[in-house]
Amino acid sequence: MTKRKKHLREIEPVVVATEDVGERRPNRSLKFLWIIPVLAAFFFNLAVLDNGYVWDDYNLFERQLPNIRTVKDAFFPGEKVPELFGAKYFRPFTLLSYKTDKALWGHNVKGYHFNVLLSHCLNTVLVYFLALLAASRLRSKYSIALFSAALFAVHPVHAEVVAWICGRNESLSTNFALLAVVLYALCRKKDSMLWLSLSCLCFLIGLFFKELAAAVLFLIPLYDLCFYRKNYSPLTKKNENVSVYALFAATFFLYYIARKVLLGSFGLQSFIEEMNLVKAVISTLGYYLKVTVLLLEFDYFISEIPSSNIYFLCPALA
């Protein structure tokens, strides 16, 4: 009887270890689950290849691109590059992507649309892995990631971005903004300065595609607040969090100074225009929050910035 008990004690740890290993190793097929939402994003939006020129595409190809002959022209547009609708845009990487497409596709409009579609597919992949990292402690993490990416892939609010060639500034900027957040999530998980540095670099690149990437300044602390509340606590790693957020703020300040210098926009009038632009961005965000959630009065294109204060207050308070 004593020998039997001793034998059971010896084999018991082996059984427990085997079960733990089985729980830690998910089915290999789950590693390729991200392909499903990517295919959905691709085939659901495949019809955009036949769109031709839409909305601002005409202005882009007739007025702007012919005046951008070198890389310097993209960073120092000056008066050579006509402004659309009277606004000063500083999106050099977007302009360079158009020139790259022109070298690849020439006058084949389908090629330009194809690259925008690929960018949307890449965003779908990034949403999948971001959701996977955010839900890494849950057993249903793969289901959550699949649902999140699939919803992003086919949601009609993205029709405006995918439908036209000029929509690439949002799509490419979102590529690097999402990549910055994914790398930051890896930084939190692995506690590595390498991932943090790469995250800031992607954030900066995204800003040079479009100012939309500034949303990273809000997404980073929001990610900590929702998924790493222990690290976010002011009683534990407050100083560390402040220094990390200050690094992202410094990255944005570097972009802001570069924008001011390269555009040559200084003075009170320039500051007032920038504040009006900030208000317009927040109001537009409020409008998109409404159509994303409610899908009421949905339109693919906003011809005018929403003027109602409700659109401004909702995202500002959020």
Walk me through this protein's architecture.
This protein is mainly alpha-helical. It is 70% helix and 0% strand. Helix 6 (109-134) packs antiparallel against helix 7 and helix 14 crosses helix 15 (309-317).
Shape: globular
Helical fraction equals over 70%
Distance between the termini: 67 Å
Beta content? under 5%
Q: What is the CA-atom radius of gyration, in angstroms?
A: 24 Å
The structure class reads: mainly alpha
- Order of SSEs, N→C? HHHHHHHHHHHHHHH
The major β-sheet equals: none
Poorly predicted tracts of residues: 5-23, 232-236
Tally of individual helices? 15
Quantity of strands, as a count: 0
Summed over residues and divided by their number, the pLDDT gives a mean of: 76
Give the structure's gist in a few sentences.
This protein has 15 helices and no strands.
Record the SSE blueprint.
Blueprint: H1 2-24, H2 35-44, H3 57-64, H4 71-75, H5 92-105, H6 109-134, H7 141-154, H8 159-163, H9 168-190, H10 193-209, H11 216-227, H12 229-232, H13 238-263, H14 268-294, H15 309-317
Helix pairs in contact: 2-6, 2-7, 5-6, 6-7, 6-9, 9-10, 9-11, 10-13, 11-13, 14-15
Task: Name the features.
mainly alpha, 15 helices, about 325 residues, globular, about 70% helix, about 0% strand
